[in-house]
Design brief:
- 0% of the residues lie in helices and 50% in strands.
- A hairpin with a 5-residue loop joins strand 5 (45-51) and strand 6 (57-59).
- The chain is globular, with a radius of gyration of 13 Å.
- The protein is mainly beta and 124 residues long.
- The strands form two sheets. Strands 2, 4, 5, 6, 9, 10 and 11 form a seven-stranded mixed β-sheet that branches. Strands 1-3-8-7 form a four-stranded antiparallel β-sheet, with no helix packed on it.
């Protein structure tokens, strides 16, 4: 599986961005696709994830109510809609995918494939 992320940029606080992650290769029905982010000097953290077949989603508490994850089956693309952005949302955003497994969907180490990252900068 290869992942291509896009949609990052510079935005003022309170603004919105939509990130896209296009997947190529085989995606199993029980696969999960997720978004993670990494701020300078910090560890990569979970943002959101979606189960491909059920459309079930998980959102980190720090972005719940502001970010939404969705997917387009036909385009094999996952989206992260980010609203009401804050300066603390700044970082490199990565999309990731994993084969079906029982490990927690929040674990960075449970993901098998990673995209190249896209920079999101929110100015105050």
């Amino acid at each position: 599986v290869q992942l291509q992320a896009s949609g990052g940029g510079l935005v003022q606080a309170g603004g919105s961005l939509r990130l896209s992650c296009e997947a190529s290769g085989r995606i199993f029905s029980s696969s999960a696709l997720g978004w993670f982010r990494q701020a300078p000097g910090k560890e990569r953290e979970f943002v959101a994830a979606i189960i491909w077949s059920t459309n079930s989603t998980s959102i980190a508490g720090s972005v719940r109510g502001r970010f939404t994850i969705s997917r387009d089956n036909g385009k094999k693309t996952v989206y992260l809609q980010m609203n009401s952005l804050k300066p603390e949302d700044t970082g490199v955003y990565y999309c990731a995918a994993r084969n079906p497994k029982t490990l927690s969907i929040y674990l960075t180490s449970s993901y098998d494939y990673w995209g190249q990252g896209t920079q999101v900068t929110v100015s105050s």
